[in-house]
Amino acid sequence: MRPSGRQIDEMRPISIETGVTRHAEGSCLIRCGDTHVLCTASIEDRPPPFLRNTGLGWVTAEYGMLPRATHTRMRREAKNGQSGRTQEIQRLIGRSLRAGVDRVALGERQITIDCDVIQADGGTRCAAITGGWVALRLAVNKMLKAGDVVSDPIVDHVAAVSCGVYAGQPVVDLDYPEDSEAGVDGNFVMTGTGRLIEVQMSAEGATFSRDEMGTLLDLAGQGTALLVEAQKAAVA
């Protein structure tokens, strides 16, 4: 039995509220159970220096956790420098979202996705990717409406979900009690058409077989399909 009482293939409740900040070109608050992440998209009409005069745009991300997003207060990383975990997560978010973008169609500009974890209960990086796509979609919609881009640079949805082996059973969408005790932990980033962007898997306390990995991939496919439906409803 999972601590939450969910079935092994049951996601946490998902909600995505859009337009939650006034100034960002795109914004949303994504809730995956008790994990809540604020995602905003900011457009700059210039690319990073390494892309000047290439005709290519760029999508990047920053990620952070508010001091009381967790059970005990954390110090703000701005005061102490970013941890390796934070740097790894924001690179993952950027890589994932770029996989769903035609950078030629985007043109020489940069869109930064800021993902701020308000409350953490497992799966924060996955929620940030899923909500980050919504913020990106809304920002691009504004550019299309204003005529700043000729064709839509977003070529597919991008969503992510965690899967793992908890108490000997493959499960989808781990919350914190499961994540902290999982024998195998993985994050799966996929497109709306079901193609893989990135898979992060590790044996935390037990090794896993190819068959178990296949089961986790199947669970991830089901989970990301539900997340994509939530994205579609949010931006409709």
TrEMBL record:
EC annotation from Swiss-Prot or TrEMBL: 2.7.7.56
PROSITE patterns referenced in this protein's UniProt entry, alphabetically: RIBONUCLEASE_PH
Gene3D superfamilies: GHMP Kinase, N-terminal domain (3.30.230.70)
Keywords for the protein's UniProt record, in alphabetical order: Nucleotidyltransferase, RNA-binding, rRNA processing, Transferase, tRNA processing, tRNA-binding
EC category name: transferase
One example GO MF annotation: tRNA nucleotidyltransferase activity
Binding site for phosphate: R85, G123, T124, R125
Catalyses which reaction(s): tRNA(n+1) + phosphate = tRNA(n) + a ribonucleoside 5'-diphosphate
Domain Exoribonuclease phosphorolytic: 10-139, 158-222
InterPro entries: ExoRNase_PH_dom1, ExoRNase_PH_dom2, ExoRNase_PH_dom2_sf, PNPase/RNase_PH_dom_sf, Ribosomal_Su5_D2-typ_SF, RNase_PH, RNase_PH_bac-type, RNase_PH_CS
SUPFAM superfamilies (UniProt xref): Ribonuclease PH domain 2-like, Ribosomal protein S5 domain 2-like
BP GO terms, sorted: rRNA 3'-end processing; rRNA catabolic process; tRNA processing
Quaternary context: Homohexameric ring arranged as a trimer of dimers.
Known function: Phosphorolytic 3'-5' exoribonuclease that plays an important role in tRNA 3'-end maturation. Removes nucleotide residues following the 3'-CCA terminus of tRNAs; can also add nucleotides to the ends of RNA molecules by using nucleoside diphosphates as substrates, but this may not be physiologically important. Probably plays a role in initiation of 16S rRNA degradation (leading to ribosome degradation) during starvation.
Family note: Belongs to the RNase PH family.
Descriptive protein name: Ribonuclease PH
Source organism per UniProt: Tranquillimonas alkanivorans
Gene from which this protein is expressed: rph
